[in-house]
Amino acid sequence: METTVRPLGGNVYEIDTRMAGYTGITAGYLILSDRPCLVEPGTSGSAPVVQAALTELGVGPQDLASVVVTHIHLDHAGGVGDIAQMYPQAEVVVHEKGARHLAGPERLMRSARMVYGDKLDELFGELKPTDAARIRSVEDTGSIDLGGGRRLESYYSPGHAKHHVGLMDSQTGDLYVGDAAGIYVQETADVRPATPPPDFDLETALRSLDKFRSLEPERLLFAHYGPVTEVADTLERSAEELRVWVDAVKDARDLGLDLDHAVAMVRDRTKDRYRMATELTDPEDIAKYEILNGTESNVAGIMHSLDKHA
Q1: Which InterPro entries does the UniProt entry name for this protein (predicted)?
Q2: Buried (b) or exposed (e) across 49-66, using 16+ Cβ within 10 A?
C-alpha cells in the first residue's frame, strides 16, 4: 500500500491518512520515541494506510505503546477501534467526556449517520468499540509517557468540541492542536474556523486559544493539515477568524435569515479573507475542503451556539 510519510524532526513523522481517498486532508502523527505514540489515527477507512505507514517506520503490532486523540470526531478518532485491534499493547488516551463513546460508539454513530447519511461509510467508515479496560481518560490535564523522560501533556481545550484536548510534546515543544485552532490550508496558508454543531462556543474557543498561547509552543501540528512554525501569528489569526464568522452569522440571524441565506451571506462576507478562494482551482482540492470544512456546517454550529445563548 502506498503511504505518504514525512519526517518533521524530533522523531516525529507526519502520516497522510488519506481520508476518503483524498491526499492532504487529515494528518496523523507518529512520535517514534522509546514508547511509540500515534496521535490522531484518523478514520476507520484510514486504518490500513496508517498501519502500512507504521510498518514502514519499523513499528510492529506489539510495539505501539499509545494511541491518543485530541477529540472523538470521526475524522480524528474513527479508526481507534481498528488500530486498537491491530496494536493490542497500545493504551488509548482520550478526554473523559469522550471515553464512553470509544467504548460504546453506537450513539455517536447514530448521530453521525443522521448528519452524513449515506456518505458516512465513504467518508469515515464505522467506529468500532474499544475494550474499556484499554482506554485511559484524562481530565483538565494529563500525561502520556513517551519513554526516556519524554512526555505528551494534555490540556483541556473545548470550544470546538466539549471532549477536545491539545497535546504538548515535552521534548520538541510541538503542540497538537486538533481542531481547536481551526483548519490550516497548506496550499495557501489560510486559517479557517472549525465551528460545527453541537458544541461550538465562541468564548470557550477563544479561552482555549489563550491557553495554547500560554504554553509557548515551538510549533503547531494541525490534524488538517501539517506543521506551522508561525505560532503566535497563526493563533491570532485563528481567533480573528472565529470573531469574524460569528459576527457575520449574528448579522444574518438579526435579519431573520434561514440557514441557506445565512450561508450565502457569510460566504460573501468572508470570501476575500482567503487566498484559497482564488488560488485553489483544482476541483478535487475544492471538493476536499468543502467536505472537511464546509461553510454550511460552520454556520449551523454558530447558529446553534447563538440560539443556546439566546
Answers
A1: Metallo-B-lactamas (IPR001279), NDM-1-like (IPR050855), RibonucZ/Hydroxyglut_hydro (IPR036866), ST1585_MBL-fold (IPR037482)
A2: bbbebbeebebeeeebbb
